[in-house]
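Hi R.,

Here are the chain sequences for the assembly we discussed:
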Amino acid sequence: MNEYLALSMILFTIGAVGVLVRRNAIIVFMCVELMLNATNLALVSFSRQHGNLDGQLAAFFVMVVAAAEVVVGLAIIVSIHRARRSVSVDDAHLLNL
Amino acid sequence: MLTLLAATPLVGALLVTLLPRGDAAAQRRAKYVAFAVSIVALGLSLGLLAGYDVESGGYQFTVQEDWIGQLGAHYALGVNGIGLTLILLTSILTPIVILASFNDVLPGRRSANSYFAWMLVLEGLALGVFAATDVFLFYVLFEATLVPIYFLIGSYGGEGRQRAAVKFFIYNLLGGLLMLASVVGLYVVSRDAGEPSYLLSDLMALDIDGTTEKLLFVGFFAAFAIKAPLWPLHTWLPDAAKSATPGTSVLMVSVIDKVGTFGMIRWCLEIFPNASEWASPVVMVLAVISIVYGALAAIGSDDIRRLIAYTSVSHFGFIILGIFAFTTTSTAGSVLYMFNHGLSTAALFLVTGVMIARRGSASIGAFGGVQKIAPVLSGVLLVAGLSSLSLPGLAPFVSEFMVLAGTFTRSIPLATIATLGIVLAALYILIMYQRTMTGPLQPQSAVVTDLDAREVGALAPTLVLIIGLGFFPQPLLDVINPAADRVVERVGVGDPPPETGVAPPSDDDHEGGH
Amino acid sequence: MSSLLPSVDLLSVDRPPIPAPELDYLLLSPLLVVAAAALIGVLVEAFCPRGPRFVVQTALAGVGALAALVLSVVVYTELDVVEGAVRGIGETTGDGSVVIDGPGVITWMMLAVFGLLGIALFADRKLEGGLSSFTGRAADAPGSADEAEAQRRGVEHTEVFPLAMFALLGMMLFATSNDLLTMFVALEILSLPLYLLCGLARRRRLLSQEAAMKYFLLGAFSSVFFLYGAALAYGYAGTFSLAGIEAAVVGRSGDDALLLAAVALMAVGLLFKIGAVPFHAWTPDVYQGAPTPVTAFMSAGTKAAAFIALMRVLFVSFGGVAWDWRPALWVVAAITMVVGSLIAIAQSDVKRMLAYSSVAHAGFLLVGVSGAFGGNEGGNDITSVSSVLFYLTVYGLASIGAFAVVMLVRDAGGEATHVSRWAGLGRDQPLLAGSFAIFMLSFAGIPLTGGFIGKWGVFAAAWSGGYWPLVVIGVVTSAIAAFFYVRMIVVMFFTDAEEGGPTVAVGGVATTVVIVLAAVGTVALGVLPGPALDLVQHAGAFVR
Amino acid sequence: MTTFWIVAPLIVLASLGLLFARKAVHAALGLAVVMIGLAVLYAVQDAPFLFAVQIIVYTGAIMMLFLFVVMLVGVDSGVSLRETLSGQKVAAAVVGIGFGLLLVLGVAQLSLGPVTGLAEANQHGNVYGLAELMFGPFVLAFQFTAALLVTAVLGAMVLAHRERLTPRSSQAELAAQRLRDYAESGKHPGNPPTPGVFARHNAVDSPALLPDGSPAPGSVPDSLVDRGQVLDVTTDDVDDVHRQIGRRGEGEDEK
Amino acid sequence: MFDYVWLLVAFPAAGAALLLTWGKESDRFGHLIATVASALSFVWGLVLFIGLLGRDGDDRSITDSLFTWFSSGAFHVEMSLVFDPLSALFVLLITGVGTLIHVYSIGYMEHDERRRRFFAFLNLFIAAMLTLVLAGDYLVLFLGWEGVGLASYLLIGFWQHKPSAAAAAKKAFVVNRVGDLGMALALMLMFAQFGTTSIQLVNDSVGSASAGVATALGLLLLLGACGKSAQVPLQSWLLDAMEGPTPVSALIHAATMVTAGVYLVVRSSGVYDASEVARTAVVVVGLVTLLVGAYIGCAKDDIKKALAGSTMSQIGYMMLAAGLGPYGYAFAIFHLITHGFFKANMFLGAGSVMHGMNDDVDMRHYGALRKAMPVTFATFGLGYLAIIGFPGFSGFFSKDKIIEAALGENLWVGLAALLGAGVTAFYMTRLMAMTFFGEKRWRDEVHPHESPRVMTIPLIVLAAASVLGGLLLLGDWITDWLEPVVGHTEHHELAVPPIVISLIVTAVVAVGVAVGWFTYGARAVDDTAPTKVSPFTRAGRADLYGDAINDVVVVRPTMALARGLEWFDRRGLDAFAVGVGSRLGELAQGLRRSQTGYVRTYALGIFIGALVLTLALMAVTF
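And here is the predicted structure of the full complex:
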């Protein structure tokens, strides 16, 4: 049980670090997806731990949410790419100070 | 009655705002209306004085309505002798200020309507502040007074007005917010004791835990000390006074700053008597520093308006000293001092305002020998100045002496150092007078013409009052004394008896000659 | 590994039927009506010809929000008193996944009002020469010929109205979710439309898109933290239900580390939404880049919903470990106030300034939350919940009003948001500038404005909880914060206009109404806050 | 358990690809591996339904969408590899390691007690169990998820869909316009049509058609004409072409 | 009758008020109003005095309480006037000399366009001075005390266009304020100690207080007296005060106001009786001033300054006498009165000389005026004889008594007083010689002439008084008269009979006169002051460096402190307050830079926040 949790946490952390270090907006977004997946793993594990399906259902919802989020997110990324020909998150820093 | 009194200027302000603007005639009309309103308010407050039962003292004309029940806030008004004195001061000074400000040159093409409207707003709020017997109501009005002054300085003042206005605002707001913390704390204390209530009477009945009381006291006191202003929290005042129009300065220093000292008596002493006593050594030392420091800084000032501001710092030191000496004499003296200082500072600001406006400079060095061409102006300045240095026979003397005498019974060293203030006062006034008015007429100050009838009309009442109260302060003291008594009793320190008893002056002695 | 063969499960026959969940449609009606308005909006988008579409959408959204407001009031009157440890009103529905209680319904009302005002701003088509503030065609590259053509033809994205209604739905659901899963879904429902809306500005589209992307990436990032926290909480308690978690916490049935990690991570997601330091960094960029009507709506609505959710989670589920999270929240509140106020001083753009101001206000609100004061026996106290509710109302009103004013102060390049461009506004447009001054004074907490009572309330709540040092920090920060509000007044009233200063566009009736309502509301809540305070106090505590 | 120890390292390795892969495609593939690995772990943990959904929705749909976008913006779209923010990587590494350690050591080491297992919950089958929840306590969440999906659709529409503002000009219109321009301003009408223009085929042997439908002379290489290999153009063809691309053009012609 | 004591004050006060507020039309007759007001006061004073004479010795103190000035808590101050033998004498002196000087001024100020105001100020002075001496309460006394200070200020600076006059006026006021510091503290001490400031009550009960209190009171009052009476160390203003018109110098800075200090000491006899230390201090102050004043008087070429030095010196005598306690109070007052006559006489004479000399004050430009101004010469000569103590003249009696009493107290004190008498004779002889004898040294454009009648008549009257003032001592009338107020004790028996002392004094005076005559009368005097003079002369000319010392010790440090503080206030304290603001601003700018615009930085912030938050929460459990 703990090992699932540990794996989930490791994945979560890798995802978080990825958000910080990757500059390609798409990859950044993939990292967020990785974090979501890590969460799902935790949910599923806890579900088995507690012997109820709430966790699994939550994981299912997360997938749905993730799907919607991906659509919106990728649409935003694409529209930015269309305007700037770039998907680097660092190129978008007109708003500062 | 009190509501009507406070509402009159506010309604008047609205009226003045709504009057048509623009050409000279419209502006003149606005001025006349504003003046008339302030006269009505004066009449009302004189009516108040007439209706006030001096014999029974205490709070009169009380009004009490629930306002924000959840907070325990009430719309509660009432005046005792102290409040009445300051209400009188406010309503006397406002028409004078309005009259004296008739020809103020406003920056840009700003309209006189709003200028006078703001003044009336300020008057209304100030009257409310002095009449409030609910902490919350008081606080609200106290803070609200910042806005009109802020606009009066920032919009109509002279050079550096924006900076000065912001400084004024932030400085005072900081104090006000510290007080807010205590106001909030007071709610909690009062709620924990039962129903929340901000009524003065309810709060006085509270038994506040020692540490909490000190904490709450500090918040209140900080606000009042900034407002008053007490060294070292005074630095906003010279700047504000320098940049404001004379009328604004008068309202600010003579009226609104009194809220600080008034608040110390009304709220700090009444609600937190133990903490007040606990803090009094420190406060008294600060007050004495204020006295000497303000006077010295005034001596060193070249700008007339800053000079007057520093003198006020010094005078406020006296007032605060008297309050925290906790004797009936000194407390009553402080209240009387508030009134007198209001008058003398008003006269000083207004008459120097005339000089400065005509000369176009506020630097002492820009004048010289003005007495020759403007004897009336110079005479008024001299009388105002002499009252500021507390010459016996002029109103401030009595109050200053009462403060000092009361303080002396409490602390001889502090009273002694404070007395130094009277020497320094002579220096700052006379040096200023000497350098501006006497000597051969300087060519550059030849533009200073003498006071005209309107200006004399505006200033005369202050001078008459200054001289009159110098000899006959007792009627006012009769109003003040019961309240001062009560405050001192509340703090519970009590007047120290004379060290060496003398046969108490029998009544025969007093009325012997008659 | 039998479970790898699901077909076996699917074929079994002896399964009891799943009972239909009990839904109290009356209680849910505000949610449903908003959802309906949004969905109908989508249909309108598909089937209504372009000509009347804008008007239809506006009306639809407006009616939806208004109906939500009315229904919320109706619902509020229907709520029953729940006597618990502390008095509350309301009940749960949907098998406990949504709780319709006093604070929640009041938040609904608040949100519905904000929604109405926001819609009004969305609908102003006078400012851009007959067009709304939103880009005509988001798909066009900024500056392209297509865009110019779309502009010329007056093409508009009327989808913004359904999107706004979805966001409103999300906010309302967020405030009344009674389990973490619903809360997460609500969080996403409110976030996604806002991400989109942020990117749709007509002017400065690159900035707008950038804002959208930042908001989106960071929003997604932080909501994952929330989700992970929720997962850990589930791990701790074995349930997502707030009440279930509370029971577990009270019984200490799990491991503290898990619990506290759950609190912390969930807090990250929620604090992000309210814009607390150090999770605030998106606020200025997004507020500045987003179309101003969106900023107005978002600043008021998101904050309200997120705060209620935050308090619901902390007070209901984790009230038992309040001693553990209060110090942390304390520190966050203090840092938020200080940093928000300080950086605001250094701003020269009105929208950014307002953004940092919103950060500072998040700090002040957190002061009220940190106190975590649920009231004494007497019941009629200023509690954390009631004070925060009141504060949110006045903040939201002033914020929407202020952004509405920002919309009107324009020059050739659109909104003139640089502070210096506002010089002399008070002389030319005394009423407009006066309204803005009222909002600023309310933000600064000057008496006779709602902001003052609001501040008083949160401070009272914090002090009641024994957190007076935080109150002191709060008041000192207020003074710092006052500096930039006051500076706006200086610029508008005391500074003479520069050459070619901004011209104030005559906004549509809607915008004017919004400004007037916000100003009147701000003053009314300052002078006579009694009824409103009554309302928020009557709301009582959260119902489980 | 064995499955876990086989799959877990794979997952971690694949996930590291997200951190270190230079190309977005590689990262996406790494993520796909992670997802599939997770699917396996779901299956191991008595979550057959999620196993399926993970494969179908996540790996199947979401990852495809990612890859699609990656292709759209260009596989090699230039995100420079030089770090622009100094210290960002170090800070991220430090914080990440700290965070990971904190969670793993602080939280994952706790004793959760015996695993209850899902035997009971799954007694009527996993899907049934989930359905019971979904249509029970979480029905509202489920229903409002619809809003999420509609939003997503709406968003995609708003950001990507370009409504046609003007009807597309037919070739006939364009040609007519060119000639009008020539008549009015002497602007060169351009080269004569090349083979395949207006024809049904692009092949060299189909002659270009003139606006009236007749074959344009010289549009087919002479050698082909000589060999008689020119595609025959019938009126039907022309009508077809009209029907396909230029209805309005035809109408105008008739006028 | 005695219910109307207040009329004494009211006449001049009303006159002053009338003249100050009345417009220009009163320019023509304003001076008459003032003179009449003063004269009325004198007449009324005379009536009252006679009324007092008709009463028993024990019943000669009439308290007239007008109204309660102020009353609060334990503090109760009556606006009360006391008419008793002491104040009666003063009333007569003040109103009498005052009226004469009013008359004199009519002529002296004839050509001054602001004459009306001058008379208003004179009347103000009379009113204040009368308040001072009539006061039944120390606070009322203080009112008069400051009132005369104000009048003095206004009159010294009457010619405001002269910067020196304005400066002198300010200086007088400020130095007096230093003295007032003592007064004010004494008043407070009285209040704290006795709960009252009534003169009667304080003096009655001071005996029952501790000696320390009495000493403190005595010293504080002495400080006040020093300021008003120009005693060392607060003497410096008097010489500058000669900037005022000469009648002012005569009235205020010779005859009346400057003697108020003596009056104060005598009036507070109860206090001084109770404290040996305080008395000694008074003696020392008086003695030092006596010598300092005399020394300065020797060195001045300015006729008014020489007279001013003399005034200081003579008041020193009075202080000395007052410091002797019951032995000397009466003699102090006696000398005060005779001095009032002859010094007023001489000042007015000096004014007359100046009037004839185009306002030139330098004696080196005079000489041989006895022929040009015979009346002035004659009256001045009589005053001269009085002041040097020529036997039979008033000064002879009064000074003699003081030296006698001083010798009775302490040999050295007596000897010093004796020395003073000699020096007085020297410098007065010098003055006489330089002014009226010798060769004429006038400038060509000057045509000395006798003053008009309106000026000479007062001179004549005062000269007569100077001669006859000694009559007051007849039959110890003055000591008996004052005894109910101040008490009187004969001094210790002297080793030699009083007549011997008189002879010794006369001899010393003769030596002084001789030295003076042979130095200045018998020899020609330079018409410019020699510059190569001994350090002693230089010191005398520089007022014994009194101003320099004040300057170095007090004025410059104070002004430097004031400027420094003002600077500190702007650049230190305020800059600190503002600095806190700007530091915050800088901090804000620094924090603002954290907003880089890079989304990854923001994400890092969130991540760090998450880490710290988690850590913080979990730290609770670890």
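The interface with chain C takes residues 67-71, 108, 110, 139-144, 146-147, 150-151, 154-155, 161-162, 165-166, 169-170, 173-174, 177-178, 180-181, 183-185, 187-188, 191-192, 195-196, 215 of chain B (CB under 8 Å). Residues 503-514 of chain B have pLDDT under 50 and may be disordered.

Let me know if anything looks off.

Best,
T.
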